[in-house]
Each structure stands twice: as structure tokens, then as C-alpha cells.
Amino acid sequence: MFRGKYRERAWWSVFIGLLFAFSGSYMHFNPMIIVGALFATFGVILLEYDRRVAKWRS
């Protein structure tokens, strides 16, 4: 139950974060790079949380 929902959101967050970071870097727009890095970091944290919850529940 938890695993699929959090994992999908985490991967979308990482994908959108990288998209923002690369497009911000291409346009030389620093705030967009920072937002992209925050999105990607949140995605990685959520993936780790999902891994620990799945390990704890099984």
C-alpha cells in the first residue's frame, strides 16, 4: 500500500527536479536550479523513506 504510492511520487519528484535543474542551468537562472535541487533532494528522501517503511512492514 505505502510502497507504490510513495515510490511513484518520489520518482516523479526526482524527474521534475532534474528537469528544473537542467533547464535552469541552460537558461542561467539560479533560482530554478535551487528549486530543481530541492525537488530532487525531496524525491531521494522520499525514496529512502519508502525503502525503510517497506522493510519495516515486511
How would you summarize this macromolecular structure in one to three sentences?
The protein is mainly α and 58 residues long. It has helices at 2-26, 30-57. The model has no long low-confidence stretch (mean pLDDT 88).
Folded structure, characterized:
- This protein is mainly α.
- The protein is built from two helices and no strands.
- Helix 1 packs antiparallel against helix 2 (30-57).
- The relative contact order is 0.22.
- The mean pLDDT is 88.
Give the secondary structure arrangement, pairings included.
Layout: H1 2-26, H2 30-57
Helix pairs in contact: 1-2
Count every helix, treating DSSP H or I runs of 4 or more residues as helices.
Answer: 2
- Our Rg estimate from Cα atoms comes to 13 Å
Query: Termini distance?
Result: 12 Å
H/E order of the elements?
A: HH
Q: Which structural class fits the helix and strand makeup? A: mainly alpha
What is the general shape?
A: elongated
Proportion of strand residues: under 5%
Write down how many β-strands occur, each being a DSSP E stretch of 2 or more residues.
Answer: 0
Give the fraction of residues assigned to helices: over 70%
Which residue ranges are poorly predicted, with pLDDT under 50 across at least 5 consecutive positions? none
* Main beta sheet: none
